Amino acid sequence: MTAKLDTDSLAFLVADCARLMRAAFERRIMAAGLGLTAGEARTLIQVAAVNGSRQLDIAGRMGLEPMTVSAFLDKLQARGLIERHADSNDRRAKRIHLSPAADEMIAAISHEIGAVQREATQGLDRDAQEQVRRALKSFRQNLQKCDPVDDPALKTAED
Description:
This protein is mostly helical.
């Protein structure tokens, strides 16, 4: 007997929707002609979410290796979208800040995120969308309790 996986289970649906939304976001970023890769765009959004984060915290939130994020940050810095500043608490660490030039790019990326969200929520009225949003916020809060990446700045910024 072959074991069968329930692809309509809550865990599977959340993971599959996240995968599909990420793929849709990547397609939109590439088609938008912003001059950023999807990874650079995601990194810039993470910087904007908690402006002044340490590079290591950004990597942790993204689930990427610090060297990968560092390469994205190098490219964003070369485009003048971010600035790196020494961390006053740790000489080895860098804090990442948006530059004033980032505003236009953040707006363009936000437009693409909005388009993906509109595509994903077609057929859901505002109440249903709000219920999904509240449920996912609860999921996130529950899972953050188990997450070894404990960035208090992100929790404060989002909750």
